[in-house]
Design goal:
Number of helices: 31
Radius of gyration: 57 Å
Keywords: Coiled coil, Membrane, Transmembrane, Transmembrane helix
Structural class: mainly alpha
Shape: elongated
Amino acid sequence: MNVLKDLSLIRLAHYVPFESLDLAATTKNDLVLNALFIENTALTATEIKEKISMILGCNLDLQTIQNSLNSLTDDNLVTQSKDKYVLSFNCYSLMKSKVTEVGAFQEEVIEDWINESIKPHFVELDSVEISSLKDQLIQFLSILFLHHGAASKALIENELLTDDNLSTNDIIESLPFRSQSLKIIAKKEYLLFLGSTNANIRRYLEQLIEKAFRYLTTICDPNILEGIKHSIQGKDLYLDSSTVYRLLNLQGEHRYLLVRDVVNLCREFGFNLKVSVMTLKELERRISFDSRVLLEFPTPVALSAVGYKYMTEENFVSTYWRTAKRQGIEISDFISKYRNIDIVLEEEGIEVERVIPAHSNEFNVEWTDLISKINNRSDHEKSAAAAEHDAYLISLMVELRKNQVINRFLDSPAWVLTTDRFFIRFQNSEIRFREELPFALLPTQLIQILRFVRPTDNKFNEMFLDVFSRTFVPISDGLSNMHTQKILSRISQYKGATPFLAEKVLSDQYFRNRFKNSESEEEKEEIIHESLVEKASELEELVEEKDNKLQQLESRIDEFNQKQERLLEIIGEKTNVITSVSQELEDSKRESGAAVGNIITLQEQLSSSNMTIEGLKEQVELLIARQTEKDSRRTNQITNFKKITTVVFFILGVALLFIFLFPIFEKIGKSTILTLVTISVWPLSYYLFKNKKYATLVASIISIVATIFALYYTILQ
């Protein structure tokens, strides 16, 4: 398949969903809006039809486009001018914002993937090569999802597919990488991207699934879509051995949960779930073969956790490891759980055939012929029993369709649900069936077909992504689980073997490579023996080192114990002292108890005496205060009288002296007399009043009186 020439696949990248209600009409409106947005100019209905066909790869009739334009015009998303149409300003802004948002999120997711998964592991890549990996990843995912959707569309529209292998290698080989080395990187890293559990990557992948689905709803016949639900109710859906193996939780919990959800979905839509007798026998044979590995190479339960840690695939052996690790179950008990799988399936509501029904000679001839054709296929790696099983299911589908008018895929009375891609390849490539409508479905195809019935149910996207991405998770190239079980079994036969020793052996990459490339059992046994001796020697050295450290630790512990014992002795001595002191304190307490009583009595008596004394004290203080007040008044009176008497006598003395000595004073002069009087009076006044202010005042008064006398005397003269 040259996917680059398939325009209907690669043009998905141009499509951006705008609305999200009724997909049947809304997706057609989205295509019209996308064409107008991409061209960014006014277009007629005919030009829009041509752009949708050229850019987006969809062929819509002119009337459908006109109906969409009328609806969009009524909603003010498109503006009409004569016979031409253009996006309204608001609609263009919303579309631009949506495109920017989608582009930014895509860039963020892929850039994070580059930084976390590519650059750290491929440091030799330059910026141009990294850019090439980013660009081709977008093309790869768009082609992959849309191609798978196109296959589901072809089934319900009765188209015959010439290629439905979903070969990721073919898609990558057809993309224009800059070098072959980039293709090698892409073949591994693109598949890991699909199986990533990163929340943003899953959201991005779900957006691509949604775009692919909405795109397909536009190009599918609406009449066929409306009849899907009624066409599948009551029809038989045979589960092949690969599907039931997963449903029995024998190929990993993740695959079990996914197939369980698909089977529950089939019940919800009214399928009659069945398992043919040959499928039952194939399952019993396969479980018996897987059981032999466990029975021939038994291991202790303790080594199961080691096996589970180093498993490279999910199958019967790894399921035992997981169960033994969690529940401690023995091998015999585990195997017995799957001896009656018919009962287990019936408990799940699945009808099981226990005997081969009587078939016509024509059926038996068909069966034998198909066994031969399957065994002769170059891409066939099945056992004879597995080929017989596949041939039986195909023959059964042919017989059930006999005498039936099968004009559409949905007219078939029964289908086979398989996870075996060889089964699908054989159906699509075998000349006998290439001209007939398919009868085998992958779970992902069934999910997408049922999605057409309930287009707005988002759980389909999640379920589809889980089932679809799991298909492309690369298988580890390490030791197979069977080899790991054999190694663990042989290790367990050595005396002293422990899970730690077993893990040391299995974790050695050199050992794994040697064991994987060895041819004879003797060589394998020798490799295991050598590795055990080597790892045991390493463990002995490690144990010796641990012992030395342990001895040092024990010595420190002994020293610590001695110090602790001495400390305990000291604590004991201190405890005895404390006990003695405590006893003395108790005795003192008892003795002081009586003393306290006496003290209280004395305190009460003293308190009563204090009250009496306080009363007397108050009376004495009152008498003293009164007497003091009287003495104070009397003293003041005496002092004042002395002061007044002194001043009076002093003034009289000065006056008399002035009179008798006036003749002498006259000779001296009046000014001199006044000065002498003032000088003589001031000390006397200061002595009497002990205050400069009062002394100055008295001296001034006396000087004035003396001056008056002098004037008076002068006038009389």
